[in-house]
Amino acid sequence: xxxxxxxxxxxxxxxxxxxxxxxxxxxxxxxxxxDDGKFEILDIKLDNRKTKNLEKNSINIEKTITNDIKTIxxxxxxxxxxxxxxxxxxxxxxxxxxxxxxxxxxxxxYIQKVTIGNHKVYLHTGEYEDGxxx
Length: 134
Fold this sequence. Notes:
Helices cover 20% and strands 31% of the residues. It has helices at 25-29, 61-68, 84-97; strands at residues 4-17, 38-53, 111-116, 119-124. It has a two-stranded antiparallel sheet with strand order 1-2. A two-stranded antiparallel sheet has the order 3-4.
């Protein structure tokens, strides 16, 4: 009896040629149901491979978990220690959050133009010196 199951997933691209006597909506709608097409495989590539163990494990997980739990008799009280170093660190974090930067004189970015029908849409992107988008 097999111990492992290996599932392999492929993506296959192929072309089907159908020869029709007449082109209308019913012929095109029934095109996928026809079996008289000529098939040509264009590309096959491996997508994913999964391996599964078929053997059943007889270990009861609940028994192992309950044996590892220990009871604590004394409750633990949280201790909070505030020192000057912690307050300095918090101050640095707060200072950096609220700062605003202006865009540089020469912008590093891209402009994309898209035409949809009679409408033109421009997408402008810009970057700061450190690489952040602005």
